[in-house]
Amino acid sequence: MIFINNQIFLAVADSTDTLKNALTWSLNNVFAILALLISFLAMWAIWKVVNVLSNSQKEFLYTKHGIPLETIKKDTPSLFNFKGINDALWKLVPLEKEADIDLGHEYDGIRELDNRLPPWWLYIFYGTILFAAVYLYLYLFTDKGVRQEQEYEYAMEKGEEMKLAYLATQANAVDENSVVALTGAELAEGQSIFKASCAACHGQEGQGGVGPNLTDQYWIHGGGINNVFKTIKYGVPDKGMISWQSQLSPSAMQKVASYILTLEGTNPPGQKEKQGEIWTPESGAKL
Ligand code: HEC
Description:
Layout: H1 2-13, H2 15-28, H3 30-65, H4 70-75, H5 82-90, E1 102-107, E2 110-113, H6 119-141, H7 148-172, H8 185-202, E3 218-219, H9 224-234, H10 250-262, E4 277-278
Antiparallel strand pairs: 1-2, 3-4
Helix pairs in contact: 8-10, 9-10
Bound molecules: heme C.
């Protein structure tokens, strides 16, 4: 019971997600749901047809043997016993016996009857009593009930999570126009990406090899964070530099680009000869 209660509260707190999931599920399974409905309709139709056929058969036999036709109706079973269900739900005293329960109060032709309370109503009423007992116990004598402040805290936590998740996607959404050079610990991550993916062509120290020297001031495709990011993202496929956007996330490309910028002037041994032109922020964006 406690478990169910907590689940209900979590479900309420998560109701937007749950609703979204239910909607997504229904959308994804539209055909399954339709197929199910159609199968039900088809079964119902078959049931009807079988009844009609068997009734005409009965009619034929009854007439042949001189049995009155009205009995057919009583013999015919119905798929849903609506009247039976209705009677069970209400359990009212039948019309004919109403005189017995008449309390004798009449106003404008409306008479008060001492009728039974409908069982569906009674069970809901008993249910509320049970619910109240469990609720009071949970909230007054245990700490299992989720109180308003807890719900508030939970919602705040969830909001914080959503905010962080959103900020994370934003951080990951950098492109060549919005990218900025990183500093600090992220450069170390950039370095390890460089060693793993780029050093084979650009040298362990960025001194160059198959690919150009990344430690001098000369750039074929422009220096500065925006140009470097762009070259990494789109590559120069016909010159042997692949596009990395399918292998590195935007933030990974940002880190490695930032790391490359720190290499300028490190003057490692065995540098490849200069290629391209001197690039300074003033010399203009290549982008
Ligand atoms: C298979 C070899 C190879 C690998 C691996 C490689 N590059 Fe390159 N890269 C090149 C070549 C070749 C060029 C020169 C393209 C040209 O001539 O236009 C280049 C050019 C560049 C440039 C432009 C340099 C300039 O002067 O404008 C940058 C920046 C760069 N690479 C970064 C990277 C990074 C970052 C990685 C790793 C994620 C990487 N490269 C991996 C071969 C490679």
